[in-house]
Write a structure and sequence with these properties.
Elements lengths: L25 H53 L9 H13 L3 E6 L4 E4 L12 H7 L4 E5 L4 E13 L10 E14 L1 H52 L12 H51 L5 H31 L8 E5 H18 L3 E6 L4 E5 H17 L6 E8 L3 E8 L21 H7 L5 H11 L3 E7 L3 E9 L7 H9 L1
Parallel strand pairs: 7-9
Antiparallel strand pairs: 1-2, 1-5, 3-4, 4-5, 6-8, 9-10, 10-12, 11-12
Helix pairs in contact: 1-2, 1-4, 5-6, 6-10, 7-8, 8-10
Length: 512
Amino acid sequence: MCVLSGGLDTTLPKFRFHKITFLRSLKVRIFLILLIVGLIPCFVMRHAILQNYERRAISVRSSDIATQVRILANHLIARHYLEDTSSEVINAELEQLSNLYDGRVLIINTELKIIKDTYGISEGKTIISEEVIRCLRGESTEGYDRENGYIEMTIPIMETVAAADLPVGAGDSFELVRGVMLVSASNDSVIATMDSLNRQAMVVESIVGVLIFVVTLLVSKFLFQPFKKIIEALDQVQEGYTSEPISVPDCLETEHIGDAFNRVLGRMKMLDDSRQDFVSNVSHELRTPITSMKVLADSLITQKDVPLEVYQEFMTDIAAEIEREDKIINDLLSLVKMDRKASDLNISEVDINALVELIMKRLRPIAMRRDVQLVYESLRPVTASVDEVKLTLALSNLVENAIKYNKEHGFVKVTLDADHQYFTVQVEDSGVGIPEEELEHIFERFYRVDKSRSREVGGTGLGLAITKSAIRMHRGTIKVSSLEGEGTDFTVKIPLKYIAAQPGERRTRRKA
């Protein structure tokens, strides 16, 4: 064993399939699959044909040899060759049989002695073989040694005994086994024919392989053509040459890919438009109070001997604009915090009943000033894993909006309920309602249904955007239903147990 020291890295480099660039190509993979699918049947067919020919050739050759041997066995009995092996006729037939099949013939008597060997090397010897013993019992055997290339068979030498020589009641005749013929025949001719067939088959296989290669190359190129069109279309979109939707209806898969990309492209356009609108709205919302303050300040500067009452009135208006600016900035900061990843949540076990009661207590003075009745109904005690600060901000926005956009002598009803997985907070009001066509936009930043009323009540258009962000950070949902002139109903649904997203899931959501 060799011991290495000095901190050397002795780890052998591992073969990584996915690092081979050309194998990552879909076109190459399609080509290889089609090529393999085309070539495997050729190999299987050649192997099956050769095996079938070998099996058939051996069967025919064995049948011919067995027929010749049985005829010769009858001659042996007729010439009494087992008692006297000097018959030139029989010896000539044995030599002829041996030469014809390029093999060897042994004549064995009932005492297991070899009385004739066409090779002339084993005569007078005793042979003990299972096949020979079984043959002496009247059972022929046949075998094929594929490795050495010869056929071996044993044929019993049968003599028919007349009834006169048998005991009474034994029948008219009876066959007795007088010996065994053990024949080994070469299979070289079959092997030579198989070699010739194999060479011819390989030539045909090579031609077919070349044809399959060419056809596979053309087919893979044809199949990949729709994907090439998609890549070219995507490159054009990336370079900014076009913003039109991609359409490649050549096959169902490319059509689906195109539709998916078009949805992503639409989403990107929407996000870009939303970003531009957001920047424009932020600029406008921040500029408006500053402009008002500048106008008021310039008015004070240009006037001489301003009465105290006018001075106080102008300063009050300036303070109001400063307060409005401060509210916009605070809402923007809250929204930025909501846009951060969910790991910024400070999760703890919170009594939701107590949290909602506290929100109602804080907002009750605002409701009293607007003559709006606040109703809180808790169907069961609820404790959940939430970020208390962010959830309080979200629910406060919902209840405060329900109060501000309500009718005189109206009501706001807050209902808390839960099941074994989620808790729900329903905020229902008798307010002015929201037009149906506006419902899908109310969670957008700086979006106002009634701009004049929003400015009157001091809204910035960020409250519902902040609320939705906070609820989504808790992996919850918010739904809204409304009838114009009758009221609005918001339903918040949040898991009782917060489960943080896995890193892979966060990446997926971020990419989406």
